């Protein structure tokens, strides 16, 4: 790993090795080419990160929010997305400027006990993410093929074989599959919005924040769930690593160019994720909230009522297809995040299929228990709860990220400007404050 002396002085220990060493600098970036051609070489990591912002956990919180509160929580989706754009910019900048992913940076900065604690919290976040993917995919299989939820949960264990096959085909193959599934989801929801006829003026009004979101406990719970489902901790680790798959120049000029193009990739991709999240909430509000079905709070109910309320037969099928695509997409990126976290914090390299199997088993066991004991309703509630867990873990990834990217010794010339530093800490404080309020309200 090439690094300037200024950057190295900021760390307690040298970087032990490249992040995702088998695909590090494996994607060619053309030299002295035009803007568009260079940008195309950087497109991919942003879409993989965006997947985490449209996984099945988002569906559960967006459906519940739209059905219960109409368009009023759209502002939370928008603000969460703006938070995500900023934090993912910091994440990619950390990876490009220092040659470290966020897990490696934590290991090289904090004491061993603190690093272990952060690793455990990151693993909890990844397990919660995987739990959402397991439940979401199982529900989609149930809706499309009538498979029992418990059977669908067990089938999700087989995706290890799919991942093994794809990882042997190269990193850009995974990126292309992810992109294809994203555009499939966009197509499905484009149709859903067309047939649901949402009230445009009320949708625009819903993008404006209101104090009611903070003062209404039920609304706040869903809002924090949306925040947890949108700004996901594992994505901060993921992005700081996969931007390093590009073969950019490891000097200041090369890093500056890489940060610019990677930021464009990330921002455009996250606006696609915003469209999908907003579309789910708008669809839920237009279809359920204003038709007297405010009780709809889970994916299964939403699917069951879409066709009769909208009066079209394709709505429910496309909804389930998009859900399955969402679950499979999230599975691909969740695997990489788990590998990055384990290797970065512990310098422990195990075979990807074994890492994937361990993570999936951790998710399958609680999902199976809840499905057997409480049925579909229980798994849907577990899905929403998993997103609140993610939100509670988020601070422990955000604070180190903001700290590192604001440290001139670590970042050199790529340190955050003053205004970005202030904005980043404001976002971190808001996240910590909302989570603290949720804990207090839940416990007391």
Measured by DSSP, the beta-strand proportion falls in: under 5%
- Would you identify the regions where 5 or more consecutive residues have pLDDT less than 50? 1-7
CATH superfamily: Amino acid/polyamine transporter I
Broad shape: globular
What is the CA-atom radius of gyration, in angstroms? Answer: 21 Å
CATH fold description: Amino acid/polyamine transporter I
- The CATH first-level class comes to Mainly Alpha
The proportion of residues forming helix, as a percent range, comes to over 70%
Number of alpha- plus pi-helical segments: 20
- Terminal Cα span: 50 Å
pLDDT averaged residue by residue: 84
Largest sheet descriptor = none
* Structural class designation: mainly alpha
The CATH level-2 architecture is identified as Up-down Bundle
Transmembrane segments: 34-53, 73-96, 116-139, 145-166, 178-199, 219-238, 259-285, 305-325, 357-376, 382-406, 418-440
Membrane topology: Multi-pass membrane protein
Pfam families: Nramp (PF01566)
Protein name: Divalent metal cation transporter MntH
Describe this structure in words.
The protein has one domain (33-443): Amino acid/polyamine transporter I (Up-down Bundle), CATH 1.20.1740.10. Helices cover 77% and strands 0% of the residues. It has helices spanning 5-8, 35-42, 45-51, 56-69, 74-98, 102-109, 112-145, 149-155, 159-167, 171-196, 200-206, 212-215, 217-230, 233-242, 252-287, 299-310, 314-346, 352-405, 408-411, 418-443. It is a multi-pass membrane protein. InterPro entries: NRAMP_fam. Keywords: Cell membrane, Ion transport, Membrane, Symport, Transmembrane, Transmembrane helix, Transport.
């Amino acid at each position: 790993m090439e690094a300037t002396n200024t950057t190295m002085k900021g760390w307690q220990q040298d970087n032990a090795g490249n992040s995702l060493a088998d695909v590090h600098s494996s994607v060619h970036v053309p030299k002295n080419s035009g803007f568009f051609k260079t940008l195309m070489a950087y497109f991919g990591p942003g879409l993989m990160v965006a997947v985490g912002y449209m996984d099945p956990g988002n569906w559960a919180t967006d459906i519940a929010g739209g059905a219960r509160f109409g368009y009023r929580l759209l502002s939370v989706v928008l603000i969460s997305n703006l938070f995500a754009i900023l934090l993912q910019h910091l994440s990619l900048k950390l990876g490009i400027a220092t040659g470290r992913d966020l897990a490696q940076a934590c290991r090289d900065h904090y004491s061993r006990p603190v690093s272990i604690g952060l690793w455990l919290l990151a693993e909890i976040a990844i397990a919660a993410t995987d739990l959402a993917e397991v439940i979401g995919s199982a529900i989609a299989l149930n809706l499309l093929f009538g498979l029992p939820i418990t059977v669908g949960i067990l089938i999700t264990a087989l995706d290890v074989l799919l991942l093994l096959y794809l990882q042997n085909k190269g990193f850009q193959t995974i990126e292309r599959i992810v992109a294809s599934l994203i555009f499939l989801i966009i197509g499905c929801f484009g149709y859903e919005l067309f047939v649901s006829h949402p009230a445009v003026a009320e949708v625009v009004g819903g993008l404006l924040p209101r104090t009611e979101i903070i003062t209404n406990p039920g609304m706040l719970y869903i809002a924090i769930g949306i925040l947890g489902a949108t700004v996901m901790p594992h994505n901060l680790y993921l992005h700081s690593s996969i931007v390093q798959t590009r073969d950019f120049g490891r000097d200041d000029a090369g890093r500056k160019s890489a940060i610019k193009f990677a930021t464009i990739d990330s921002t455009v991709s996250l606006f696609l994720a915003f469209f999908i999240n907003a579309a789910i909430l708008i669809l839920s509000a237009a279809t359920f909230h204003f038709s007297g079905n405010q009780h709809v709070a889970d994916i299964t109910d939403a699917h069951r009522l879409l066709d009769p309320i909208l009066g079209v037969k394709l709505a429910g099928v496309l909804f389930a297809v998009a859900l399955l695509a969402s679950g499979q997409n999230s599975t691909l990126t969740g695997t990489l995040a788990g590998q990055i976290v384990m290797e970065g914090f512990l310098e422990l390299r195990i075979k990807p299929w074994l890492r994937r199997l361990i993570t999936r088993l951790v998710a399958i066991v609680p999902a199976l228990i809840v499905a057997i004991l409480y049925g579909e309703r229980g798994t849907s509630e577990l899905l929403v709860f998993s997103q609140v867990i993610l939100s509670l873990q988020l601070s422990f990834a955000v604070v180190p990220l903001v700290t590192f990217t604001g440290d001139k010794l670590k970042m050199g010339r790529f340190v955050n400007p003053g205004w970005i530093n202030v904005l980043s800490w404001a976002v971190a404080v808001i996240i910590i404050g909302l989570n603290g309020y949720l804990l207090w309200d839940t416990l007391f």
